[in-house]
Write a structure and sequence with these properties.
single chain; mainly beta; Immunoglobulin-like; 6-stranded antiparallel beta sheet; 5-stranded antiparallel beta sheet; binds calcium ion
Length: 352
C-alpha cells in the first residue's frame, strides 16, 4: 500500500514538471513542440522491490490556425466631404498556437448593410492599410507603416491596423461607405518576408506538425478558411447651407424714408443670409462674394456689416463692421455658421 501511494506521488510530480515547462498561452501549447510523458512501474517479487520499468511516449503538437479581426470602438467614423486620410481602426489578433504572417485586404461594397445599422451609399478612394508601428492606437501619418501583411505575429499577439481613405466631395450628411478588413493567415516564413498560403492537413494525423483551421466565419469570410474579417464604416457629416439675398428700399430722393420706392437715387439695403440646417456640421470660413451690377453704386459711407441676425425672415439692423469692397465686388467672411444658426452680411447701394 505504501508503494502505491509513493507511485501516485511520483506521477503527480512528473505531471507538475510538464505543466511548469509549458508556456501559459491562451492559444494553447505551441505548435511543433513535443509532449513527452514517461511512466514508471515499480513492482515486487517475493516481497522484494525489483528494478523499476518505464515507458515513454512523445508526440508533436499540431498547429491550430485561428484569428480574429475586430473594429476598434462601436461607432462609425464621422467624415467631411473631401476629407483626406480618414481613418477606421481594427485589431488583428493571432489566436493560433503558432507565429504566422497575416495578409491584409480592405474591400468596399456597393450598397448593403454597413457596420452600424446603416446602408452603404458611396465608395471612399485611395484606400490604404497601415499598421500602428508606434503602438499608440492612433494613426500617425509618416510614422505608422503602409503594409500589405502583418509579419511574424506571435501566438496570442495582436496589432492595431488602420484603413485610411479619402472621402469624395459633394456628399450629403448621412452618406455611408462601408469597408471590410480581412486578415488571412499565412506561413510565417522569415521575418520581413510574407509566407505562402497555409494548407490544412487532409486525412489522418501525421507524426509531424499537422495544420487545422479553427477560425469561425466573420463579416465576409467562411468558417475554417484561415481568414477573418470585420466591417467598419465612414459616415458623412457636412454643412447644409441655405443662402438668401434680400433687398429693402431704405429711402428715395422724393419720399425720403416714408414709403420709399426703388427709383434712381434711392438707397437699397442688401442682406445676404446664410443658414445652416439642424444636425449639420459647422461651416467655417464662409466667404461671401457679391459682384454689384453697374446699375447700382456701393455706399461706402454706410459700410458692410457681418454676423448679423435674422428674425422671422427679416434681416435685423445688426452685425459688426467688416468685409471689403473692391473692383465692384462686396465681400466678407463669416468665421463660422453652426447647425441651426443664421448669419448675415449687410450693405447698402444707390440705384443709378
Ligand atoms: Ca461603398
Ligand atoms: Ca500610431
Ligand atoms: Ca514572415
Ligand atoms: Ca473564417
Amino acid at each position: 500500500m505504501a508503494t502505491h501511494v509513493k507511485l501516485l506521488g511520483a506521477v503527480s510530480a512528473g505531471a507538475l514538471a510538464i505543466l511548469a515547462a509549458s508556456p501559459a498561452y491562451a492559444s494553447g501549447t505551441a505548435a511543433g513542440s513535443t509532449i513527452t510523458n514517461t511512466v514508471t512501474v515499480n513492482y515486487q517479487v517475493g516481497a522484494v522491490s525489483q528494478i523499476a520499468s518505464s515507458a515513454s511516449n512523445s508526440f508533436t503538437v499540431d498547429r491550430k490556425v485561428n484569428l480574429t479581426v475586430a473594429e476598434v470602438g462601436t461607432t462609425t467614423t464621422t467624415v467631411s466631404p473631401g476629407q483626406a486620410a480618414a481613418v477606421t481602426t481594427f485589431t488583428v489578433t493571432n489566436t493560433s498556437n503558432a507565429t504566422l504572417d497575416f495578409a491584409l485586404a480592405a474591400a468596399q461594397q456597393t450598397g448593403g448593410a454597413g457596420a452600424h445599422s446603416n446602408t452603404d451609399t458611396f465608395d471612399v478612394t485611395n484606400v490604404k492599410i497601415y499598421v500602428d508601428t508606434n503602438a499608440n492606437g492612433i494613426y500617425d501619418s509618416g510614422t505608422d507603416t503602409l503594409v500589405t501583411y502583418l509579419d511574424e505575429l506571435a501566438a496570442d499577439a495582436s496589432k492595431t491596423v488602420f484603413v485610411v481613405s479619402d472621402v469624395p466631395l459633394g456628399l450629403a450628411t448621412g452618406s455611408v461607405a462601408a469597408v471590410t478588413l480581412t486578415a488571412t493567415g499565412r506561413e510565417g516564413d522569415t521575418a520581413t518576408s510574407q509566407g505562402i498560403a497555409l494548407t490544412e492537413t487532409s486525412g489522418a494525423n501525421t507524426a509531424g506538425m499537422d495544420t487545422v483551421f479553427a477560425d469561425i466565419a466573420g463579416a465576409t469570410d467562411a468558417a475554417r478558411d484561415a481568414a477573418f474579417s470585420a466591417k467598419d464604416d465612414y459616415t458623412v457629416l457636412t454643412a447644409a447651407l441655405t443662402i438668401a439675398k434680400l433687398s429693402t428700399v431704405i429711402s428715395d430722393p422724393i419720399n425720403g424714408t416714408t414709403n420709399p420706392k426703388a427709383i434712381p437715387g434711392a438707397t437699397i439695403e442688401y442682406c445676404i443670409s446664410v443658414a445652416n440646417a439642424t444636425g449639420s456640421a459647422t461651416a467655417t470660413s464662409v466667404a461671401i462674394s457679391d459682384p454689384l451690377p453697374s446699375t447700382v453704386t456701393y455706399n461706402s459711407a454706410y459700410g458692410i456689416f457681418l454676423n448679423g441676425t435674422v428674425t422671422s425672415g427679416v434681416c435685423n439692423a445688426d452685425g459688426s463692421a467688416g468685409g471689403a469692397f473692391a473692383s465692384g465686388t462686396v465681400s466678407g467672411t463669416l468665421t463660422s455658421v453652426a447647425a441651426t444658426e443664421t448669419k448675415t452680411l449687410r450693405f447698402r447701394a444707390t440705384i443709378n
